[in-house]
């Protein structure tokens, strides 16, 4: 039996330590022909260091010892930072961005020379030529880093194989080692806008040849079947579908109104895999929920595996086994293996403890609701839930609106302690897949073009009103939180709408002109599609230039080593708000970059957010170890 208790004051088993522990991030995966499985593991209790873990007949063990940190800086977001060849492992090290080799006995030695200003990603083994192939980013180039595709010999010599495009990704070798393919794109495109598929004949002296794609077709993850046929994911149909390359161009293998691809923010992603016998397997997403399928290569018919997961990523196949990371509303992202016939599911490693009582877990409903301009928006709605407490009679719960980053991204349906932290304390949560989010086809993805700061704001506002109209949220107790591009949406909602009583901006954007002038190469033209380059329009959409319209308290959380959204974005917003008497809290983390990795900082961030909302909405959290959040000017409880 549950007892009424003010929302926000419910004691919860999901504490700040739980959220920090969930900062353990499972990333890139790999399988070897010998049956070993390897994966990256970012550990908050080691200051956010990432290592490579391997599971094989010898057990489970770290392959990269401390203090090495497996992290590429290419595009700032990195990915594809290690590769295996039997017992040998190569990885990009965070501190010096050099490639290092780890031998079977654990010996680590540097392969590429230091202090050259080079970063590497998407490492591939070219076994016939006893070398590595990698994407290289040269930070000595002017006016921005230069991309190239390089070969790295056993003694560390670096030779350029291809260059010219602004961006290069996804190098892949044919099974016979004769052909090398990759993707490229140029400013102002992002990889989900338009990419080109290239091929180089390594057995000859020819130049690279463009095979498919272009500025209006997004290609993702080129991959060779064991018979040498080349496949790639293309959105020419309006949805990312699997295609086969032929002499006549790309021929669709699948014909789904669903997504077989994801936005290429990082290197090393995989949603399609071939087994050694030519079996084709894929992750497909519909309305934000993912399934694992086998694909008939002749007809495109899908057979769905019966698995307890709604979120899937990092699919690999080898020797009749599949490996992937899967999660659901009650399961945190978990590294799994599975027989190719669908039997023998094994869970190797979970990113967070999923053994909470089922009665405390809030599971989401996927909702669609009308928004501005006669359009429709998507979101996941989580009701407040606790086995011991309930919303007092006659009340509706406070609502936390969550805004994902990107903005070309999406919410995740896997168990997220950062959401359960709030629902188990009496909050409803609306995790918004505003227009521009992925998983709903190219048209929905492009609905944000020219409308960032307008369409996403409207979708958050209309989502809150929709829940209020359904009696599911208190319209007088709405708060909003988001990171990076989601932080920009937070500040825009607070500035240009009157729906929230307070907000938390995690390394969010306040001044679009400054961002355009100072952000890194990968996103330096992103705004041109999202808004445009007219200075008057950029100022019109920038919360900083309309700070007089922002009247509610705001919490700013910022890493001081962030190169994606520089710290001055938060600093200028805080100064502008305090100048006009609006309470603002500003918490900085000197060693953090874009996204918080260290456990102590993750605890501080979410604990501060809870204490902040309690102060603004007038509740006293049951937690006794929350940080102090100084507001300037001071702001008491309502």
TrEMBL record:
> Peptidase S9 prolyl oligopeptidase catalytic domain spans which residues?
416-618
List the keywords (alphabetical): Hydrolase
- Top enzyme category: hydrolase
Could you say which EC number(s) this protein's record lists? Answer: 3.4.-.-
Spell out the Pfam families in the cross-references. Answer: Peptidase_S9 (PF00326)
Q: Which residues form the signal peptide?
A: none
Which GO MF term does the entry hold, naming one? hydrolase activity
On whether Hydrolase is a keyword of this UniProt record, the answer is: yes
Put simply, this protein is called S9 family peptidase
Q: Which organism is it from?
A: Spectribacter acetivorans
